[in-house]
Amino acid sequence: MSAPPVIVVGGGLAGITAALGLADAGREVTLLEARPRLGGRATSGRRRGQPVDTGVHVVLRCYEHYLALLDRLGVTPLIALQDRLDIEVLLPRGERAHLTRSHRGPPPLHLLAALLRYDALPGPARLSALRAAAALRHLDPDDPAVDLDAFGTWLRRHGQDPSTTEGLWGLVTTAALNLAPDEASLALAARVFRTGLLDRVDAGDIGIPTVPLSLLHEAPPRSALLAAGARVRLGSKVVRIERRARGLVVAVRDRHQQVTELPAEAVVLAVPHDHAAQLVPAGAVDDPAGWQALGHSPIVNVHVVFDRAVLPVPFAAVPGSAVQWVFDRTAASGRAAGGEQYLVSSVSAADDALHERTEDLVRVHLAELARHLPGLEHAHVLEAFVTREPHATFRQRPGTGRLRPGPTTHWPDLALAGAWTVPGWPDTLEAAVRSGRAAAARLLSVPMTATEHGDAGVSAPARAQMEVTS
Q1: What is the per-residue pLDDT across 274-309, written as a single tens digit (0 to 9) for each?
Q2: Domain named Amine oxidase: which ranges (predicted)?
């Protein structure tokens, strides 16, 4: 009689990565996902027959583990990755600035010219920003003491005035950490700037998906999992994890509200922190209720379809504006043939915008776009709507590092995964994949019964099975 499988709870990037790692190592794996699709919070829905992503997800070249996963899935060509960092910055009355790295010089000198030529700031502010960048490079993102400070406080101590913070530091921090600098952890901000910009020449090169996220994170992972021999069960909501005399048992509710119990050799719990706190068995971790203090930070996206092109670049930053960042998603949504342009304004740290009326958000964003894009007054709006992600990320404040548990629990057959678990890393696609790898490595480091019972004579494709509960 074969051993029960390792069960991975959650079909986001963390769960997908953990399941692939375990299956590659020869474990029997079953992945359970409550939704009818994989991808977690980084996927797409549909509106009037058109794909709409749950949010705009930017990829950086330093996302090495995430890019490796895309390569494994065969979808790397679907990311348009810059040859070098180049951010167009929209200023009022049609003026422009650029943050463009140099091909020359070791880090951080590759950014020297970019900051010195950054017209969004006056000359003295650029020099001051260079000095702050040099100081930031000496911070250790893994130092717990650094995590207790707020990035905005640190910036003021290093001579950064409000306009410099808004026009440069906040431009990056608010998007990367989904919090304004005054509320964001200094350690996580240091990670963003050091890993993403200061420590490697090409680390901050930006990539944008050229297709809906569902074409990256739904069918390709499912195919890869099946090819590796894993089972995938969608529409399967885990309601309880227990330890019994013979091992772990996972209770699963299907779409018909029927609950079945599945024995598990081991479990990877790869769900958001609030859900994990409800599911983790008593005694497996010290204080799961404490995870609730991680909280949530929302993102709001304002979608506008114009009858003509108004933004000449794939994306742009808009400092000091409600828009924050604007992305051209025309081709990715399949609208390019009609000559229209589909723009998405991505608003991070959107606590206020989350509760504003759709018509008010659209009105404000149209006015802001008109203030920054000459010629927009001649365009007609064909469609406008708003999507809201109340729980887009955890709230990456000072002191949250101590709440992030990593993959390890007190039980050798239970591991945690999810971007929120990774100490020292922002809540990103990269952190999610890193967490899945860490969870798989944790379980593989512990002898499990699969290696004793074994089924080496059965090929992975023969074991593969797709189960969609309907």
Answers
A1: 999 999 999 999 999 999 999 999 999 999 999 999
A2: 13-444
